[in-house]
Amino acid sequence: EAEYIRRFHRYDPKGNQNYWVVSQKFVLSFLKIERLTLLSLTVWSLVRRFDQPQRYKPFVSRCMMQGDFAVGCLREVNIKSGLPATTSTERLEQLDDNERILSIKIVGGDHKLQNYSSVLTAHPEIIDGRPWTLVIESFIVDVPEGNTRDDTCFFVESLIKCNIKSLAAISESLAVQDLTETIDI
Ligand code: A8S
């Protein structure tokens, strides 16, 4: 796990270091809870669809793509009501189907997260003969004026935890669906 983080979740903070959150601790606390009992393919097939985040992200109501689905493309995401945000414009920075890495950068929108970038990696593992997927997500973001590092980290961490929990639940139901379809009843 530490090796995955070393390899895939690296950042190069610029400017005043205090204004950046690189939450290694958050990633580590995640590692324990987010071992998903699923075919890792199902997880990755949801994550890699940069054009359809609403399939698993509970706060996204709609997503519109600008340009073809390729590295560098942009999506405009609409956020459900109840959050301090309405839209977000996001760029696909990296999509690696072999290593299972998705990296995005927020480049605009109506919300408080300035210079937000994130990396999500999904690692298939066999534990007790069963396939699992370990999902690790890390992020870097400016601390908004009037907020503390801790508050900012807590806010983002809560959103990401919701996303990953939902990813787990939806992947699981898709995996079960796939299984029952192959069993001809
Ligand atoms: C993601 C991660 C995050 C998304 C945040 C942190 C966001 O979409 C929501 C509320 C906000 O205030 C910021 O990978 C923003 O989705 C749900 C609009 C960016």
Automatic annotation (TrEMBL):
<keyword id="KW-0963">Cytoplasm</keyword>
<dbReference type="GO" id="GO:0010427">
    <property type="term" value="F:abscisic acid binding"/>
</dbReference>
<dbReference type="Pfam" id="PF10604">
    <property type="entry name" value="Polyketide_cyc2"/>
</dbReference>
<protein>
    <submittedName>
        <fullName>Uncharacterized protein</fullName>
    </submittedName>
</protein>
<keyword id="KW-0539">Nucleus</keyword>
<dbReference type="InterPro" id="IPR050279">
    <property type="entry name" value="Plant_def-hormone_signal"/>
</dbReference>
<dbReference type="GO" id="GO:0009738">
    <property type="term" value="P:abscisic acid-activated signaling pathway"/>
</dbReference>
<keyword id="KW-0675">Receptor</keyword>
<comment type="similarity">
    <text>Belongs to the PYR/PYL/RCAR abscisic acid intracellular receptor family.</text>
</comment>
<dbReference type="GO" id="GO:0004864">
    <property type="term" value="F:protein phosphatase inhibitor activity"/>
</dbReference>
<dbReference type="GO" id="GO:0038023">
    <property type="term" value="F:signaling receptor activity"/>
</dbReference>
<keyword id="KW-0650">Protein phosphatase inhibitor</keyword>
<keyword id="KW-0938">Abscisic acid signaling pathway</keyword>
<dbReference type="InterPro" id="IPR019587">
    <property type="entry name" value="Polyketide_cyclase/dehydratase"/>
</dbReference>
<dbReference type="GO" id="GO:0005737">
    <property type="term" value="C:cytoplasm"/>
</dbReference>
<dbReference type="InterPro" id="IPR023393">
    <property type="entry name" value="START-like_dom_sf"/>
</dbReference>
<dbReference type="GO" id="GO:0005634">
    <property type="term" value="C:nucleus"/>
</dbReference>
